[in-house]
Design brief:
The chain is mainly alpha-helical. The chain contains 15 helices and two strands. The chain has a two-stranded antiparallel sheet with strand order 1-2. The structure holds 3-methylbut-3-enyl trihydrogen diphosphate (IPE) (2 copies) and magnesium ion (3 copies).
Length: about 300
């Protein structure tokens, strides 16, 4: 079948652009206002950020923006926001892997940051990646109208913060070895994973100054694929191979994580996944053919192998 191959080469092409942008920002040159870039933290940030990762969130930012046919300036701004979001996602993984959290030794096919460096460096590199994201969104070179910049910072703060990703991580940890209802698990997953994926889709609309209706529609699309994404992650944790995933598997059961797969089983999860993808794809209808890659992204998220 040609389609998945086609999608994956599109994903890889965007990933290369994002990686280049990130490498450029972490080139070791202090920007105005920065004093010194200590080599150890710079090297740790580069280790975490460059070389690996599907870069699906940046892809979603860029493809959501492409729906509104941006000019070259807007396209460059979308790339900056995409790269910024990858900084936040990567920081979330660095902290998620720490011994105090999921205590994982393998990430993106390599030793986790706290193993390759040390815990304190991993904590600080995570902190620095988080702040770097806001630096990138607001950098004057991004050339975004101030009101769009402010809207992005606001939406990103709320998606990443205590009412979003961080809050979801808190609930996830507090729920180990406890019974959660389906509704509670859905909320936790909508926060720890869904919030950044939702932001990715919404950000494309914000960068382009799309109408509130379109912004809302993309946000709902992001919500649906966000739930699908974590459901697929939990299924892969149960069934996939560590070598293919580039991270340990079988860990959710070991740690007593509250997941929909542990609550309802794999078969139920597969059916649910199909429903979420259908609902997501339906939301894209008004965008017609322009949304083809976003449609494929929804399928990819549900059927991915790693
Ligand atoms: C892993 O995210 C963490 C979850 C939210 C489940 P990804 O599967 O997107 O990880 P990378 O970026 O490709 O490594
Ligand atoms: C992680 O969920 C979500 C975030 C990093 C915010 P998981 O703990 O399931 O992710 P993996 O399986 O370690 O990638
Ligand atoms: Mg976790
Ligand atoms: Mg984890
Ligand atoms: Mg997982």
């Amino acid at each position: 079948m040609d389609l998945p191959f086609d999608f994956e080469s599109q994903l890889a092409a965007r990933a290369t652009l994002v990686e280049r942008r990130l490498a450029d920002r972490l080139d070791g040159t202090p920007r105005p206002g920065e004093i010194v870039l200590p080599p150890r933290i710079l090297s740790a940030m580069r280790y975490a950020l460059l070389g690996g990762g599907k870069r699906i969130r940046p892809f979603l930012v860029m493809e959501a923006a492409a729906l509104f046919m941006p000019d070259t300036d807007t396209e460059a701004a979308a790339l900056d926001v995409a790269a910024a979001l990858e900084c936040i996602h990567t920081y979330s993984l660095v902290h998620d892997d720490l011994p105090a959290m999921d205590d994982d030794a393998l990430r993106r096919g390599r030793p986790t940051l706290h193993i390759a460096y040390d815990e304190a460096t991993a904590i600080l590199a995570g902190d620095a990646l988080l702040t770097l994201a806001f630096d990138m969104v607001t950098d004057p070179s991004t050339n975004l109208a101030p009101e769009r910049s402010v809207a992005l910072v606001s939406a990103l703060s709320r998606a990443a913060g205590f009412g979003g990703m961080v809050g979801g991580q808190m609930i996830d940890l507090a729920s180990e070895n406890r019974h959660l209802s389906e509704e509670e698990i859905v909320t936790l997953q909508a926060m720890k994973t869904g919030a950044l994926l939702r932001f990715a889709c919404e950000a494309g609309a914000i960068v382009c100054g799309a109408t509130p209706d379109d912004r809302e529609r993309l946000s709902r699309f992001g919500e649906a694929i966000g739930l699908a994404f974590q459901l697929a992650d939990d299924l892969l944790d149960l069934t996939a191979d560590e070598a293919v995933m580039g991270k340990a598997t079988g860990k959710d059961a070991d740690r007593g994580k509250a997941t929909l797969v542990s609550l309802h089983g794999a078969e139920w999860a597969h059916t649910q996944l199909r429903g979420l993808v259908d609902a997501a794809v339906e939301l894209l209808e008004p965008f017609g053919d322009r949304a083809e890659l976003l449609r494929q992204a929804a399928g990819f998220i549900a059927n991915r192998r790693n």
